[in-house]
Amino acid sequence: MQLFQQGKSWPDCQICCLKLSMQWVYRHQLYNLRSLMEKIIKIGTRGSKLALWQANWVKSALRAGHPSLSVELVPIKTKGDKILDVALAKVGGKGLFVKEIEEALLNGHIDLAVHSMKDMPSEIPKGLCIGAIPRRETPQDVLISRKSLLLSQIGPNARIGTSSLRRAAQLLHARPDLVITPLRGNLDTRLKKLDAENLDGIILAAAGVKRLGLEHKITEYLDEKVMLPAVGQGALCIEIRENDSEVESIVSLLEHHETRTVVMGERAFLKRLEGGCQVPIAAYGKIEKNKFTLCGLVATVDGTTVIKDSLSGQKDSSEIIGVKLADCLIEMGAKTIMENLT
């Protein structure tokens, strides 16, 4: 109005306002760019070879989307990395590989954390959230056998290495004649133990083997009918602080919507069952023709009892489906199994 009174016509006033608006947007964008250039984004990660590969992948992806961004890795040793001679189920299970990293995130020592989604407890600590879930790698488990034999070809009393109750239970259900041998350590350590401990085979997550370029060592991809994967297996979790809009904006380019839909359905199943590493629990979801299908399992440790079912519905209802499937398994007897094991 003041411009109009000074002799400017109304159209001239509109042009002036538009110019001022464009200048403000430009300055705001320039300020944000300078802020990104000056800020160093610190990524918290475990120090294993696989964890560092995953964190470096996230670092490269962020730099590709924000070329001026400075990114630094901060390796953090977790309780799970320190205790290698005891089964996970006996020392706390879920959360052993993330707690110290989450504390660093809450304290502001790092800006985001990169985890394997299968290591994430069903409950996220207050003040934190899942900022992004990138596209999922192969979720299956694989067999790596010393003599390149398939699971069906391995003889009775063969020694198979794994410390996962989920894997052990399903293996024994399919092959009760096998002998399960405890196997801890990071991926390359477990591969070395295949020969060092004279094992007939070991079971690993396909995603980790592929990410480290060791796919040629895989003997067999285990069918989901034999070995249902862990919740979130093959997916990464990028964890951030709640209400950190700057970091949220930076990591948003890594988000893969379909993977989030599937993984959150699996996690809803796990949360409803309130299960950790003490109980053999598995779930695997997929989207086909806009329909979400989730298969879930609860078993006894020795594999003699396996309660398994699947449920389908609209893909935008994956979490509701996860809860309903868990309720179905509870009605089928899963609650009794869990009460006896916890």
Task: Walk me through this protein's architecture.
With 342 residues, the protein is an alpha/beta fold. The protein folds into four domains: 2-37; 39-135 and 235-255, Periplasmic binding protein-like II (D-Maltodextrin-Binding Protein, domain 2); 141-221, D-Maltodextrin-Binding Protein, domain 2; 257-342, Double Stranded RNA Binding Domain. It has twelve helices and 13 strands. A five-stranded mixed beta sheet has the order 2-1-3-10-4, with helices on both faces. It is globular and about 60 Å long. Residues 1-6 have low confidence and may be disordered.
Q: Which strands sit side by side, in order, in the main sheet?
A: 2-1-3-10-4
- Total helices: the number is 12
How many beta-strand elements?
Answer: 13
Instruction: Note the run of SSEs as H and E.
Output: HHEHEHHHEEEEHEHEHEEHHEEEH
Low-confidence runs (pLDDT<50, min 5 residues)?
A: 1-6
Instruction: Please give the alpha-carbon distance between the first and last residues.
Output: 73 Å
Approximate helicity band: 40-55%
Structural class from helices and strands?
alpha/beta
CATH class wording of the largest domain = Alpha Beta
The CATH superfamily of the largest domain is known as Periplasmic binding protein-like II
For the CA atoms, what is the radius of gyration? 24 Å
CATH architecture verdict of the largest domain:
3-Layer(aba) Sandwich
Shape: globular
Which fold does the CATH topology of the largest domain refer to? D-Maltodextrin-Binding Protein, domain 2
Report the major sheet. 5 strands, mixed
What count of structural domains?
Answer: 4
Strand content: 15-25%
